[in-house]
Amino acid sequence: MDVRTRAARVSIFSNIILVLGKLGIGYWMHSVSVMSEAIHSGLDLVAAAIAYFSVREASKPADAEHRYGHGKIENIAGTIEALLIFLAAIWIIYEAIKRLISGGHAVNEPLTGVAVMGGAVVVNYLVSRYLFQVAKDTESIALEADAWHLRTDVYTSAGVMLGLVALYFTGFYWLDPLVALVVAAMIIRAACHLTREAMLPLMDVSLPAEEEEVIKEIIARHAHEYVEFHKLRTRKAGRDRQVDLHLVVPRYKHIDYVHDLCEHIGDEIRAALPYTDVLIHAEPCSSVVDCRVCTTCPEKENRSSKAN
């Protein structure tokens, strides 16, 4: 089984346990903050299911219908997950404001909620750390989005836990919906981050500047073998990168030499940036500008001798 698929399954299993636990305890306690965390975990479960589906589909090779592969399905999944987070935040805000207006409701056994939230913090932290590592190793935007879901749950569960502790010692029931509002604010912040990370590749934005610099440095290592390069274009779909460029070579070079040069450059780029497809269009030097740059072309020497 693919490591990304296995990680997504772990996330689904952990979220099922947390949703059932939080819903049951939150309903029994009459706590809007605990219930809001249950809804949050419910959306985490949906997100984990979406991540599982997307990484399974994205790992399929290119076919006749999808010539560039299926990588962008991860970006689509990440966008859907971000929208789900926004919906969760809206529901929490609505319920919290309604309870603040009414002055808050009595909460049963807040320390029970503290224990449940503490357990959720530990589980979500461990699972999110695992997902972040797999997402980093495999460059999976869907798993990264799922990891952010769970890491946000860590912070919000900790906030609810502290709110319940304060409620237990003070008896101020309005603290429960107030903490829920703080939870909602943190959820919205995470949703904004995820939306940007997931949607930008759908717009075919260039790779990050540091990655493009790596590509340029690799090409520059072979500067003595070509005249110049131009029209460098990059983009990303899920974890898959696409790089294409035009490479101007001395016109007298044999096609085998040019092919090997392009292959070497492509191999070095793929070694530095995994999951990269490199397309190099080679073209012969054909202008005075090219001749000024090239120092190995016999035609330039011929022109110089004729001029003398």
From TrEMBL:
Cation efflux protein transmembrane domain sequence ranges: 9-203
Keywords, in A-Z order: Membrane, Transmembrane, Transmembrane helix, Transport
Membrane-topology descriptor: Multi-pass membrane protein
GO cellular component: plasma membrane
Organism: Moorella mulderi DSM 14980
Leader peptide range in chain numbering: none
InterPro entries according to UniProt: Cation_efflux, Cation_efflux_CTD, Cation_efflux_CTD_sf, Cation_efflux_TM, Cation_efflux_TMD_sf, CDF_Transporter
UniProt protein name: Ferrous-iron efflux pump FieF
Transmembrane regions listed in the UniProt entry: 12-32, 38-55, 76-94, 114-132, 153-172
Record-stated family: Belongs to the cation diffusion facilitator (CDF) transporter (TC 2.A.4) family.
UniProt-recorded Gene Ontology molecular function terms: cadmium ion transmembrane transporter activity; ferrous iron transmembrane transporter activity; zinc efflux antiporter activity
Entry superkingdom: Bacteria
GO BP annotation list: intracellular zinc ion homeostasis
Domain Cation efflux protein cytoplasmic, residue spans: 207-285
Compartments in which it is found: Membrane
Main localization of the protein described in the UniProt heading: membrane
